[in-house]
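User: Sequence recovery, please. Input:
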């Protein structure tokens, strides 16, 4: 019976990763659906930037983009894949949110650091 109760209280993550934040202490109750921990996969990172609406119109989800990520005093260039181009622009700034995924299998990049993307050149008319 004790073993069964223990199994009912175990938390298993659906993916592998590193716990970066615990929102509940041992013995504390958590409501259904309430997050108790934040799990990050440091092998796959995302760069989220806001780009001008005129550039965003040329971007398509799935296309390859180069990203540069700040590491210490320098920058590392990575090949990324455009995952999301928001369908909505900010009305005040006309900026559109863009999300690019890139690998970090060597662990040299800390998630959350600064980065930039290389936008494709506009077609010449």
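Assistant: Recovered sequence (125 residues):
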């Amino acid at each position: 019976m004790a073993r069964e109760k223990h199994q009912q209280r175990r938390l298993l993550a659906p993916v592998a990763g590193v716990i970066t934040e615990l929102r509940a202490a041992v013995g504390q109750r958590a409501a259904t659906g309430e997050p108790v921990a934040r799990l990050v996969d440091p092998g796959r990172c995302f760069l989220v930037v806001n780009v001008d609406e005129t550039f965003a119109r040329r971007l398509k989800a799935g296309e390859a983009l180069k990203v540069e990520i700040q590491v210490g005093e320098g920058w590392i260039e990575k090949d990324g894949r455009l995952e999301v181009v928001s369908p909505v622009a900010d009305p005040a700034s006309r900026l559109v949110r863009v999300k690019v995924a890139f690998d970090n299998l060597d662990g040299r990049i800390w998630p959350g650091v600064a980065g930039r993307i290389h936008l494709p050149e506009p077609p010449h008319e």
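Residues 2-40 form one domain.
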